[in-house]
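Our collaborator T.R. sent over the components below with a one-line note: 'Predict the complex.' Nothing else. No constraints on interfaces, no templates requested, no preferences about which chain binds where. So this is a plain run: every listed entity goes in together, and whatever single assembly comes back becomes the starting point for the next discussion.
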Amino acid sequence: MDFLRPETLAEALELKASRPDAVPIAGGTDVMVELNFDHRRPAALLDLTRIAELREWTDGLRVGSGVPYVRIIDELGSQLPGLAMAARTVGSPQIRNRGTVGGNLGAASPAGDTHPVLLASDAVIEVASVRGTRMIPAADFYLGVKRNALEPDELIVAVHLAPAKGPQQFSKVGTRNAMVIAVCSFAISLFPAENRVGAAVGSAAPTPRRAHEAEEFLASELDFSSPQPLLDSVKRRFGELVSEAASPIDDVRGSAAYRKHALAVMARRTLGWAWQELLSQKNGGGERTCA
Amino acid sequence: MRVNVRVNGEQRQADDVWEGESLLFMLRERLGLPGSKNACEQGECGSCTVYLDNVPVCACLVAAGQAQDREVRTVEGLADGDALDPVQEAFVEAGAVQCGFCTPGLVVAAHDLLDRVPSPSDPEIREALAGNLCRCTGYEKILDAVRLAASRR
Ligand SMILES: Cc1cc2nc3c(=O)[nH]c(=O)nc-3n(C[C@H](O)[C@H](O)[C@H](O)COP(=O)(O)OP(=O)(O)OC[C@H]3O[C@@H](n4cnc5c(N)ncnc54)[C@H](O)[C@@H]3O)c2cc1C
Ligand code: FES
Ligand code: FES
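Returned assembly:
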């Protein structure tokens, strides 16, 4: 096995072009588990942790693929509240100190916690190779269980996502509060200026996916310019539509029926929280209601 | 391959390191530092927690080659000669150690918490130690130890 240690992105892309069999390693929190258990014996590891360009962000926002979760939580939480919420639920402090969004995207597990947020907030994934750069909308990035749109010579460089234009929420069901793979998860982003809602489910289909009908339903039902308290019927219908967007399976973590049920509950609750935030922004106050 | 790394303040060199090997294996088997424990090799238990450039990580999930030119501090590097670190002392006094297998990782995680948050609340302690499993103590004495260490700072 070779251990490749590029110092710059350009060098990394050259290496990946000449060694498409090299497995990139960022935080290593997925890759090392596979190596430790001999599930994978790649011909080479391509260490991305020395590449400064991948570990920074610029305004707008363009977040380098190698920024660890802990920095998203501590330093980007006010601009990217949804992503920070999802990041807070990943693993444990040790995992969040090391794990990255780029690694979550590289692994492309249907249960990856950042995916629903990236979908709901219209993120675009920047990938590059020596052939050039591609900008891939998150909705086109996930192709199947643990399969993404990367070509063998490409690396994930950054995630582009605008600072939140309205309230965002993320919710995840697991057996405890720490160190759990999602049984299912849900993210919602409100875009009040555009009369629009983004909604996506995780761990409830072969890929993370958007709940289009649920999004359209809310866009037609909700008045973003003078928001009124939510009707229970709207919350309920939204929950149903989110649940219908999923096609979960029975597995060790939960049954399909449970996942469908939990998704409807999470969708109702997160919509309630997000809407309450919007109401209090617009009306300068207001109580928090239960789902 | 050869890996050069600063460990507990000393420049060290490990030879014949397998490219897919973890930092944990290198520390324990090549650099003579068995303090960090190997209990799961999958990031679940925290027994292998070490500082990498001052950030606590699971050494089992870092490739040894990723530590090249970096600074590692293990549980062996916390004491000052024979004088235990206050966190280690508090673990002994509070009875937070039974079989001791989880202890090195918990001591490093607690040490980091108290560096960042000198008087943590109970929820902050629980959150900071959420990545460390202990199958003996039931955790109460561990929380006592962290509170004790915090009170002495
Ligand atoms: C104990 C434990 C708990 C966990 N809990 C959670 C959890 O709660 N939620 C969750 O979503 N995940 C969880 N994970 C999985 C993992 O931590 C995440 O998927 C994390 O985001 C991976 O990031 P990384 O930088 O460590 O990835 P790596 O392990 O370095 O890489 C992961 C994959 O992505 C590829 N890759 C990495 N960077 C790039 C890049 N820039 N370009 C192209 N390919 C790339 C790698 O080749 C590999 O296939 C957990 C893992 C462990 C060990
Ligand atoms: S041995 Fe590293 S976390 Fe368990
Ligand atoms: S003291 Fe035995 S595992 Fe914690």
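Summary for T.R.: The first helix of chain A runs from residue 9 to 18.
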